[in-house]
Amino acid sequence: MTRKQAAKTIAFLALTLALLVMLTYMLRTNGAVKDRFAGFYAEKKNSIDVIMIGSSPVFPYYSAPQMYGEEGITAYPLSTNSQRPVAELYLAKEALKYQQPDLLVFEVRMYTSSERYLTENMAYTRGVTDNLRYSPNRVKTVLAMLDESDVEEGFAPDDEDRKVYTYLFDIFKYHSNWRSLKDAKQWRMAFFRLRDPLKGFESSAEVGPCALTDYSGVTEEKKIPATQDKRLSELLDWLSENHLKALFLVSPYAESEEEAEEFNYIERRVTAEGQDFLDLNDYYEEMGLDGAEDFSDYGVHVNAVGSGKVTSFFGKYLKEHYDLTDHRADPSYSGWDDAYENWKSDSAEKIAAVKEHVRTGTYAEEN
Fold first, then answer.
1. Percent of the chain topping pLDDT 90
2. Within 10 A of 130 (CB to CB), how many other CB atoms are there?
């Protein structure tokens, strides 16, 4: 083979690989998580002040557009449903490839869950791995999330094929999703970069009332599951080694006394390593949270009314405790002004729906 032939072969293989990656991005399952992560990759490099990582208590609780409109802070959620704690370290590493945030925020509610429970549905794993761009860090994420060595009794039974190659090369999973190519939006996902008009935020207009019990006076501790304790140690060690500042956060919900004790354990471990901890369950009154109106699913997640209250409180907390720049006068952040306007329109519509649900007593179905 001549040099010219070799060069043509290499060029052909490179082009084929590039097209295969683009096709994979387009065929991945459509939805809010894909939009959220593609939106993150589309953000201007080093423009995000706060990266928020965690499970479903992140994206419906903290409205990045609202936080920007009220405080001038830019925040972005790397959040997936029932996100396993093992993912948080790798998502932080992914975030730092594109941004230099002043603060990393880790939502810790899932640290109280058993790893076996979190593997009952491998969508909790794919929610992370199938929404990252191809990179060495993605390979490490896949391998870490498929490692059963720290899971007592191994992963829970699941009908889904767990062969590693279907995670590393997820086109094997989604090769039949050809109908996605009929959606013009998915063609714009070819590079897995597409601005999200609400900066990753997703709220609900449903109402599911709950009772909120204040456990702020509880001082006892209960150790979290061993696997999650190890994950917490790995994350704290990495933060220390890289001289990074983080806030470990508990989003408000109808917690139990046992969970409050587990959060006390996490708080002690986190603060001993010089990191910050905030349990918003200790601030129901300050936020004005109302269990009768502010939750979408009976105490697990807030709706649009509740998120407005939580975001307002949290934005002020960040501004008071961290040295974060107010970007509202900077014309290079005009896209965030647009997002704030989008949020105001979306929020007004959903708040009106919440009020109507409360007025008529039409509540969400209980699972």
1. 82
2. 21
